Amino acid sequence: MASESKNDLPDNPQKVCGGHRLYWRKNLQLIAILLFIWAFVSFGLGLAFADSLHGILAPLPGTPLGFWFAQQGSIFTFVILIWVYAWRMNKLDDEYFTNGDE
Amino acid sequence: MEIQQWTALLVGASFLLYIVIALKSRANSTGEFYVAGGHVPPLANGMATAADWMSAASFISMAGLISFSGFDGSVYLMGWTGGYVLLALLLAPYLRKFGKFTVPDFIGERYYSQTARVVAVVCAIFVSFTYVAGQMRGVGLVFSRFLEVDITSGVMIGMAIVFMYAVLGGMKGITYTQVAQYCVLIFAFMVPAIFISIHVADWAIPQIGFGMDTPGQGSSLLQRLNGLHEELGFASYTRGSGNTLNLIAITFALMAGTAGLPHVIIRFYTVPRVRDARTSAGWALLFIAILYTTAPAVAVFARTNLIDTVYTDGQFQSHESMPEWFKTWEGTGLIQHEDHNRDGLVQYVGAAAVDGEGQPIRNELTIDRDIMVLANPEIAGLPNWVIGLVAAGGLAAALSTAAGLLLVVSTSFSHDLLRKWLKPDLSDRQELMAARIAAGVAVCFAGYLGINPPGFVGEVVAFAFGLAAASFFPAIFMGIFMKRMNREGAIAGMVVGLLFTAGYIVYFRFMYPELDNAEHWWWGISPKGIGTLGMCFNFMVAGIVRSMSADPPEEVMEMVEQIRIPEKP
What we know:
CATH superfamily of the domain at 3-306 and 378-453 in chain B: Sodium/glucose cotransporter
Mean pLDDT of chain A: 80
Helix content of chain A: 55-70%
Oligomer: heterodimer
Largest interface: A-B, 56 and 64 residues
Distance between the termini of chain A: 10 Å
Low-confidence stretches of chain A: 1-15
Strand content of chain B: under 5%
């Protein structure tokens, strides 16, 4: 189990802290991009623009696009977003904390 | 075999499975009782989270809700899934790194304040109990409808089962029964959905079936349904009813509320590492999405089947010609036909319906939307074992959620109130004993609420989400992402968010229900969506108060730095 981590600071905090800052900034960037997509498909395509997209039948031949995003597409997108985040961040963890695995 | 025998067999077999798991996974320490020792593999935790999250409401009520509200029902689909994105990106990994047992733990330590901890405990207990009452009620309903036991005995049986694995095994027992319950509930939901999809749309995958052109009809299922809605004077199925801002506010409140609900968050404390918390959220939403993308398809099939039954070839049908299931459910009072014009026909119409001379037509049929999923197999004429399966699935959904919530209640008492506040000298063994007793008492109290439900369960659920969105979500978010957020700011924000949201809901739902309409709502936002506004106030007040008070202590800021990075290098 992860412990209370006050004592876990490595020997050279200066250098590692710089690395941490970069890691954190990349994390925030990734979060911002993914949350933008999250809001765009759900609040945008699914709700705000749904009415204007009503005439377009896609991606299935019988569903209006806005309705499809509100009831199907947004949920599929959410699943993909979480997996992309997990995949990217787990890679980033390896890059910045090479022996991150106990 | 008869429906009742099949139901008894399938429900009995699933209960036996839960009991065996309960006996195999006894908790021996508080760590095992609270977070299953932190050893749950991410895939298993994903399944457990999905079962934890999908309640009797998701399984029984949601498809029916969407069936009757069409496009506007999308807020529930997006709200109850989109919250997992917030959870996975903004909360779960950091809370896992923090590595304690409960949500009040985090709030208490991050804001170095017993007051903050106690506020969080009270909210957690309130939210969990309001939720549990609905679950126990669901258990009772399934028993009374399918096994013809009365609701009280149904609730008692359900309580006995939950008692066994929650009190003995704590989180360890709950986790592995939830994995089994997920399998039962998803199988039970998908089998009838697939059957009906083949029957109605000629496609085995419901998600595809409901959006294709129906062979031989010349139009798609949704177009046909929209056409029927127009003929009968209902609002369009695929278009929203207007106020987009309100829909957005409701969706957001449900999302932030989902991410802030303690029984969901606590599941992410049970995986071994930070990276497992991320993948486990991915699994959880994938497993949830299977049901949540099927539900809207089931809603469309059910709606079309229902209208086709009462309105065939442009004619309302007579009451005598109604099929068997219609009469069975009429017997329970959940379908009601009042023949206003005494012509013997079942006239099912919407508010805008007019006859040939432009005179309005009165609706004669009232259907309880909760029956759609339960009645669906009968409507589609599926074999008896499918109906028994649906009953077992509904019970799995209700029991798994109830157990997760009861664990939050018991942990809040034994850990947050006793160990961390009132009696800090408690030994691990004593704390474990206290947790078991608290769980036992909570089960009994939940059972009491299930047998004597407070009349306002529906209203209270809006409360639970609103409060979680206006208090927990912002407090945890700021605790992680704003290093300099201090005790004063966080507490002021939580208090303002809570009071505003609770005040708005109480004002419109309990004090002046006659004013509860778009005309009187602030900016047209309904009480269901007001948590979004409460959250904004929380952030604003917290920011202002923070700028006027001292920074948090050095070691707290150090702790925030540590939460942000994965395991020790």
